Amino acid sequence: MAVEAISGQWVWIVPLIPVLPALAFFVGIIGGGLGLHKRVSNLTIGAMALSCLLAWGTVFLPVLLNFLGGLQHGHPEPFSWSHNWFWAGAGGPGDGLFIGVMVDHLTAAMLAMVTLVVLMIEVYAVGYMAHEPHYGRFHSYVSLFAAGMLGLVVSNNYLTLLVSWEIMGVCSYLLIGFWYHKDSARKAAKKAFMVTRLGDCGMLIGIFIAYAYCGSFQFEQVFLWAKTAAPVLVALTALGLFMGSVGKSAQFPLHVWLPDAMEGPTPVSALIHAATMVSAGVYLVARSYPLFYGAHGDLAGDLELTALGQVYTLEPLTVVAWIGGFTALFAATMAVFAADIKKVLAYSTISQLGYMFLALGVGGYTAAVFHLLTHAFFKALLFLGSGSVIHAVEHAMHHEHVHEDPQNMYHMGALWTRMPATAWTFLLGTLALAGVPPFAGFFSKDEVLLEALRGHHANPILGGFGLAVAFLTAFYMTRLLMLTFFGRPRFPQVWAHTEDSPAVMTRPLMVLAIFAVILGLPAAPAFFGGENYVHAFLNMDGLALFGVEAPHALRPDFGVATIATLLALSGIVLGVALYGTPAGAAARRLAWGNALLRAAMTAPKRLYWMNELLYAVFVVPTFAVMRWCNAVDRYVIDLTVNLVGWLTLVMSNGWRWFDQTIIDKVGVEGPARTAQGVAEVGKFAQTGKVQGYALVAVTGLLLLVAVRVWLVR
Amino acid sequence: MSAAATGVGPAFWLLAVGIIGGALGVVLLRNMVQSALCLGLVLLLVGGIYLNLHADLLAGFQVLLYVGAVVTLVLIAIMLIHNLAARYVVQTNQRWGLGAVAAVASGALLVWAINDTRWPVTLRPVDYSEQLRQFCLALLDKYILPFEVAAVVLLVALLGAIVFAQQTERSE
Amino acid sequence: MSDPAASAAVQPYLLLSAVLFCIGLYGVFSRLNAVGVLMSLELLLNACNINLIAFSRYCDRGVELARFGGTALGAQGQVLALLSITIAAAEAAVGLAIVISIYRSFRHINVDDLDLLRW
Fold first, then answer.
1. pLDDT at B83 (0 to 100)
2. Which residue of chain A has the CA closest to C115?
3. C25 part of a folded domain
4. d(CA A687, CA A706)
5. Do the domain assignments include residue B159?
6. Measured in Å, how far apart are chain C's first and last C-alpha atoms?
7. How many domains does chain B have?
């Protein structure tokens, strides 16, 4: 009911949601250049608040109310609304380019999450970036970034989705390299841009395949096409899109850019690693799920590879699941050994994104989207909290002239008493991420594990991965908490000067903390035989509109939940034991003393040499090709060019001679010189004596008459 | 009538000698006043030639306009221009010899042409009243446009003369 | 009609006109002062007028008139002569005004020295 009343106005309201921050960017970037810093942030935050208001008031809440109303009368109707704004090219649906917006439950939930988190981050950045000379530029970029994410979420076609996707790519480049005076920031920005570009190649190919065979970029048209098209094409399209997701969401093996991206200001890290860019990859797979699922549902039609006389079928969803599961575990082990507080969170993000892909891969669409939403809130909270810590420690270090890395956890300690607001909110975020009930992370993670262990495409190995990650997550987060907020201070004078961040930074933390606590509760009644509101809202029923017969999500029960909770608690206990007690410290020293253990722990500490591997696989060959190209360029092309140039020179010298001698001297100057010479002589005839003229005239007349009379008679 | 038909009478020859002598006086005399008086004589005698040709109206115009007006103008101009009437001022430029040759040559050409041409002469009786009538008809009918143009030219000439004569006075 | 005897009737006038013209021409060429040049021009014009009147007397096509039982002498040449006299009068007036104007500017009217429009 509520939706029918409002959906007519969505035609112009929904485009407005991404357009407002974009406009704020265009105005703000000029204002930032003019030095109107405070006003720029007022403008961008105002635009974002307005977007947030529109997203919540006109999209999310009406959709939610409509859904709840439907729920009371039994099963709620599948709901998807799409409207084309512009089109180009001839023909009707399925032909030409259509650009429009769409709203369904996924879009509504994403809009609500993105606008709120971005708004919190922008408010937080007012405090965090207060002393930044390029304050206005920063807020403008953030605004454009948000516009890109919102545009991606409301797109109803792959074309504007790609455009928004690339806007985010550009903004991530600009924001990671925001402190461009730092060499490491410049390198990180380039790396992020290039590595995601690798994935985007695949995404472009996927979109091109879809357009080439379907003739449309629109989701509906592509999904309807996927139902009847050759499964190979659908599988290739799905894999191409997933490649884009791998780059954007930092999955193995393209995860290397994300830890380096910590070079950007911490609000940027929160923006990129919580609300927007990395979740765009998960969103893309979720949005394109009919392509993946359709391919998965029909085994005979999946991508068949013939190798060594054996036929292998490659199912896109299986690829998604294995890459996600492996990345989750792989990144979690790296997070355990990281010393930089932001790096721990970065690896944690990669790990959690892997979780989401794992859920998508095993058919847990609902679980993945649920985890995406909860993770956005508590990971934004954790990043902003770490930023608050870094901010405070940096100031204190600066004040005390201690020249140490303010992001290194081993330089912190015992900050609980110094900055209670940050510590409390951080603790809530940690518990949510670790999956302790009844925090948000517990419910979403439980769903993921449930799908991985007992779902329709469950795999015991992947389930094991998930359980291991649940344990590791709790462990490394406890380690972080212990090193940062507990124990004894490493630099007592710094510790003494560390003060909690201003309210403009801690208030957003509190808002996010509230969501980190309560967001999982709608799923809680399912444990006690009640309705799982998350499942009902984020189910795959909408996919039925595209002809996908998706299985319903599993009902959570205490079995998996208990295992997961026990694992999380044991991780916490281990973390406290190792990093919170003197015996733990001794055990750690002992472990590093053991050569075998030391070797085993070096691998994750050195990030499994993935940077080196990618360097060897991509960068070194590229440089080799470049050297070849350089040689060809220098010795073949340049030679030809020089030869042509030399010939031109010779010819032009000849022409110059011809031009100067023949054309200029004879052709151009000749008549002029002749006229001048004649005039030099002839001017003496112009004596100014009138009677002389008359005499000459009469003489001439006489001569003419004489000639006529006697000679030409 | 027959006398007119056979040739020119002695009056013509007297007039011709007077005209040529006067004309030579106009171009050769050094005193400009004497030159002007000679011009008056020539113009008067040309009027006589007109009478000899039975163009008595023209003769009247000749005397009135030329002798009465133009010669008077010339005399006034000479009077206004200082030092012009002096007797022994050199009055010819360096090219007078060439001018004489050209004049004699053109005269020779003209004389040759006149003698070499057979003129389509038709002798007609002269009726003065009829001739006057024809003159007036021609002037106001066939040549009305040149007549009007001449009137405009005279007006413009009058204004021009005033402007030229006055301009320098104002600047003085 | 145009026999040599009749042709001889007009020749004296033409010869007189030619001589007068040549004398005027010489005056135009050789006179040093502008007033003399103007007077010589008057001679040229008079020579022309004599020609016009002579042709009007002897070579006129005539006018058909019943009263004469043939053609009567016309007066077209006289009209041209009258116009010529008119123009001559205008020329004399303007010319002399210019001469006086020149004199006031240069204090002389020597035509040879009025050569500002030379190279």
1. 67
2. A688
3. yes
4. 27
5. yes
6. 56
7. 2
For helices A2-34 and A135-154, what crossing angle results, to 10°?
A: 150
Q: How far is CA A557 from CA A15, A529, B68, in A?
A: 41, 9, 145
So what's the pLDDT on residue C1? 43
CATH code for the domain in which residue B76 is found: 1.20.120.1200
- Domain stops at, among B36, B62, B91: B91
Model confidence over A278-327: pLDDT tens digits?
888 888 888 888 787 765 454 334 555 555 666 566 677 888 888 888 88
Contact between B102 and A699 using a beta-carbon 8 Å cutoff: yes
pTM over 0.80: no
Other CB atoms within 10 A of residue B139 CB:
18
Per-residue pLDDT at C44: 93
Q: Would C28 be classed as within a structural domain?
A: yes
Q: What would the pLDDT profile of C33-79 be if each residue is shown by its tens digit? A: 888 899 999 999 999 999 999 988 888 777 777 666 667 777 888 89
- B5 and B60, same domain (yes or no): yes
Indicate the SS3 state at residue A470: helix
Question: What residues of chain B have any CB closer than 8 angstroms to a CB in chain A?
Answer: 93, 95, 98-99, 102, 105-106, 109, 113
Domain that holds residue B83: 1-91
Residue B96 lies in a domain: no
State whether B60 and B133 are in the same domain: no
Contacts of B99 in chain A (CB under 8 A): 691, 695
Domain count, chain C: 1
Categorize the per-residue pLDDT at A13 as very low, low, confident or very high, splitting at 50, 70 and 90.
confident
Cβ A691–C37 below 8 Å, yes or no?
yes
Average pLDDT over chain B reads 83
Cross-chain Cβ contact C111/A694 below 8 Å: no
C41 touches chain A (CB under 8 A): no
Q: Does A706 touch chain B (CB under 8 A)?
A: yes
Cα separation, A424 vs A510, in Å, equals 9
Asked if B142 lies within 8 A of C76 by C-beta distance, the reply is yes
B51 and C CB contact within 8 Å: no
B54 vs C contacts (CB less than 8 Å): 57
- Clarify whether residues B21 and B81 are in a common domain: yes
Q: Which of C29, C37, C118 comes nearest A688 by C-beta? A: C118
Cβ <8 Å between B95 and A691: yes
pLDDT attached to residue A545: 59
Is the domain of B70 the same as that of B137? no
Give the pLDDT score at A57: 83
Tens of pLDDT, residues A127-148: 888 887 788 888 888 889 889 9
**What residues in B contact A702, CB-CB < 8 Å?**
102, 105-106, 109
Instruction: Report the SS3 class of residue C42.
Output: helix
Same domain, B132 and B61: no
Report yes or no on B113 lying in a domain: no
Q: Is residue C118 part of a domain?
A: no
**Distance from the A673 Cα atom to the nearest Cα atom in chain B, whole angstroms:** 33
Question: What distance separates the 2 farthest-apart alpha carbons in chain A?
Answer: 144
- Residue C58: its chain B contacts at CB < 8 A? 119, 121-123
Specify the amino acid at residue A287: R
* Selected residue with higher pLDDT from B2 and A333: A333
Q: Is C114 an interface residue toward B (CB < 8 Å)? A: no
Counted across chains A and B, CB pairs separated by less than 8 A come out at 19
pLDDT at A643: 92
Residue A306 pairs with which residues in a beta bridge? A311
Residue B148 lies in a domain: yes
| Beta strand spans in A186-270 (E) | none
Distances (CA, A) of A8 to A11, A12, A58, A218: 6, 9, 11, 20
**Which portions of chain B are predicted below pLDDT 50?**
1-6, 172
- Indicate yes or no: CB of C119 within 8 angstroms of CB of A684: yes
Assigned domain for C29 exists: yes
Chain A residues with CB inside 8 Å of C118's CB? 686-689
Q: Is the pLDDT of residue A631 over 70?
A: yes
pLDDT of residue C18: 94
Domain range spanning residue C43?
A: 4-113
Q: What is the CATH classification number for the domain harbouring C71?
A: 1.10.287.3510
SS3 letters across A522-574? HHHHHHHCCCCHHHHHCCCHHHHCCCCCCCCCCCCCHHHHHHHHHHHHHHHHH
B3 and B82 in a single domain? The answer is: yes
A691 touches chain C (CB under 8 A): yes
